Amino acid sequence: MERTKAIRNEIMCCMNCGDCRIAFRPAIERFKVCPIREVHPSAFEPFFSRGKMNLAKGLLRGDLKPSKELADIFYQCTSCGSCREVCHQSHNPYIQNNVCKYLDHIKVWEAVRADLVDAGYAPLPRHEEITKWMEKEHNPYMEKHEDRIKWLEGKKLPDKADVVFFMGCTEPYRIPEILKAIVKVLEKAGVDFTILHPEEYCCGSVGFRVGMRKIADELAKHNFDAIKKSGAKTVMTHCAGCYRTLKEDYKELFGELPFKVVHASEFILDLIKSDKLKLTKPIEKTVTYHDPCHLGRHTGLYEAPREILRSIPGLKLVEMERHHQHAWCCGAGGGVKSQYPDLANKITEDRVEEAERTGANILTTMCPFCGRSFKETIEARKTFIDFKDILELVIESME
Fold this sequence. Notes:
Number of domains: 3
Oligomer: single chain
Strand order of the largest sheet: 4-3-5-6
Shape: globular
């Protein structure tokens, strides 16, 4: 358990207050924190952060031994980071009495998972299957690597450009219409850009999140070298998981990056502000925005997507009850959607119900995992609300 031992001080900072289950703030009273805890059939402690921290302490003290049973518990977490936002021992600047400012819950879960993999008690069956696909075809969907650019339909892009558009895996193989929308926006704004194919592999996010560090590190090294070789100054991606991985995990692995990593929302907002992209066609609808965990809590990107929505004439933005750093998770992250789909789907349903309560016509976000989950749930519920990615709204409003 070497990775877990390396962050012993962080883990021992947990003072068992329980705010990671139900937090109390005078301005907003009590509120629920952990999505897994709220949908899990068990009421026991291990299914929210405090219980997992106590198990991690047990591993460090030698009171517990690594096991498949422990792995099953530690993987029942979306790694959304909601617990970190209310923790009195975290780096959170909004909490005045956080004493040691050590505790990063996401780092702890990912360290324990990686150690459980090294000890032979993980990955879980579905995660192991996905990892084999990543090794063979460089994506978690077992699609042919050469089909990553099938959505381009023969369209030619320059060999080199200052801006590299990092496609990710979910959009090329599952929702190519989002990639087509991005290309349409970039071309409309006169942006000189290219892609890395055939050099682009999976960013490694899945491996990092479920503790499969060997394959994750290999994929990251391949992409890092390919981007460096391309000479690109900026890497832009729409996938929230890719964004977090490229921006945070790659920096942790390789140090200061020789290229800038930006999310599509930041890039498009800059185009709007510089008048390179004009949104003039009104959309007379009400929209509510979901903060993806990878964009919001993990990387602090909250306002760019909202500013884009406010730039669209006629479009009214209303917030859900839980938003920004307290936004409810969609349920798809941390390997939960693949291994525990029932838990993931219940969390998604909670979030869609919250969106419905705003009265909005449209639920929107800028994350393919969140988007696919919402779309599936909305279709199953046959509800009045529709799902559209922000890019689809941008396309509707473009001149």
